[in-house]
Design the sequence.
């Protein structure tokens, strides 16, 4: 089956309206953060961010399949020495739209910039929020398993009697473990912390995320020939990775230069460039 990559130039609030209901398996995106990227996207004040984003999330809710997942990379801005609350406020308002806030991942940026501030340390992580329309969604956990590590060779070599049964927590939490379940296994399920370096210098974009980030979530939430959407496409990392992994994809961005850059980075026969509507050209 042919894999298609659609690049759409325009405001995603409007471009998303042209997509049919329930047509996307995974939305993964990193929108402009509050007051960031003013030169390319205009910047959105923290107090206006929720109001600005809700029409987008409303359309994403419509186009996402009931079994699909929305992955949102976002970070609070520091305003006057205090973290803004717009991310928390956005989560609460999106829940009113019908979204389920299923999980929160942490992207640990291994090469974060050094610096010094009078009341805080440098940022080394960003939020990655997972939203769903239904509690029953597609999730392929085995696709992201990680090597067990050397500890398994020593820890599992000599098991005690306790290790061979369910050993309940001594603090009464209800949690327990059976160490013997891991015998003869060479992989384990990962944590919700992703350790990835940032990528900017080679992307011609001020806030490009690493290819490993969309790749991990595409593995986790989709199969081949599924549809992936990035409504704030930027340098097109999501689309490039989706194509390599044999997923169909749609990318939207209001900056024409980014759309042209993505277009030239992909095979022309498998890519469609949708021009911005005339009213945006004249705006």
Sequence:
């Amino acid at each position: 089956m042919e894999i298609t990559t659609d690049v759409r130039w325009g405001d995603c609030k409007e471009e998303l309206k042209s997509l049919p209901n329930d047509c996307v398996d995974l939305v993964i995106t990193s929108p402009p953060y509050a007051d960031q990227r003013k030169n390319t996207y205009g910047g959105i004040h923290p107090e206006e961010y929720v109001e600005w984003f809700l029409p987008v999330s409303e359309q994403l809710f419509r186009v996402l399949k009931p079994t699909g997942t929305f992955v949102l990379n976002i970070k609070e801005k520091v305003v006057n020495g205090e973290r803004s609350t717009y991310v928390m406020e956005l989560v609460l308002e999106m829940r009113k739209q019908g979204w389920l806030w299923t999980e929160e991942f942490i992207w640990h940026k291994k090469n974060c910039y050094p610096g010094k501030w009078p009341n805080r340390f440098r940022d080394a992580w960003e939020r990655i929020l997972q939203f769903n329309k239904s509690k029953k969604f597609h999730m392929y956990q085995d696709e992201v398993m990680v090597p067990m590590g050397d500890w398994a060779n020593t820890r599992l070599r000599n098991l005690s009697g306790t290790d061979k049964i369910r050993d309940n927590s001594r603090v009464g939490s209800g949690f327990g473990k059976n160490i013997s379940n891991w015998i003869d296994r060479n992989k384990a399920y990962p944590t919700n912390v992703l350790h990835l370096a940032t990528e900017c210098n080679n992307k011609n974009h001020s806030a490009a995320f690493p290819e490993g980030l969309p790749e991990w979530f595409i593995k986790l939430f989709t199969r081949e020939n599924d549809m992936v959407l990035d409504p704030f496409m930027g340098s097109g990392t999501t689309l490039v990775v989706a194509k390599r992994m044999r997923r169909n994809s749609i990318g939207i961005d209001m900056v024409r230069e980014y759309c042209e850059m993505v277009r030239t980075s992909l095979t022309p026969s498998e890519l469609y460039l949708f021009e911005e509507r005339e009213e945006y050209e004249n705006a």
Remarks:
- The chain has nine helices and 15 strands.
- Residues 49-63 form the longest helix (15 residues).
- Confidence is low (pLDDT under 50) at residues 275-283.
